[in-house]
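The data are quoted verbatim for completeness:
=====
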Amino acid sequence: AANEAAGMGDLFGEVIPTSGSGDPYRDHRRARSWTLRDVLAGEKESLGSFLSGHPMDEFEQEVRKFSPRAIRDLNAGSKQWVAGLIVDVRLVKTQRGTMAVLQLDDGTGQIEATAYSEIYDQHRDLLVKDQIVLADGRLQMDDFRGQLSLRAKSFTTLEQARSSRVLELKLGLRPDIVEAGVTSELKRALSSSVGVCPIVVEYRQPAGSALIKMGERWRVTPTDTLLDQLKELVGHDCVELIYER
């Protein structure tokens, strides 16, 4: 309790012994690796298309917590969240204003999503090409095209959905990671994304593991940028978002 109240002092310093690292090449070894997102963005910019995968691939497991079905598995007549990358935006002028006709692609298929003027006005900043969105609406069969379409009622980004549903951010930490001197870099990363999401650290060593609940001063907003930084520092498998059941 004392450790938690103190915010773990120097971020793990009170419970985990750290050793100074005299490694002159540490900063070079810690140069940020390219994520799949970076690779795909580079391919799209230089080649005009994605070759190494789909932008949704990186978030597939997390997206299914909000949108259980892939586009290829959707059925008409149901109301649900649909996730996809906006690959096309067509704006149509109507008597009531501007509506948007979007093409969403999740790598398994595509679906047309319509945002009427009121909905488009509320979410226009999100409804741009190459943005991953979650669209809430009713699925219906477009008899003219013979395909499913979505009449959208609202849109959100994955980051927004994540922040509203996540319970805590869990970090796994091992002695070799601490000895590599990453705690100061962890502090910088966490301090750059202050929010309301609690952090729990699982300190793992051969003799066993212990869960450490960090104090309120270390609460964060789990943005994509922060998660990328943490995965670089402690390892991809050592960063886990815990969601409501």
Observations:
- The chain has two domains: 2-32+162-243, 57-158.
- Residues 36-47 form the longest helix (12 residues).
- Residues 1-10, 14-25 have pLDDT under 50 and may be disordered.
- The CA atoms of residues 140 and 146 lie 10 Å apart.
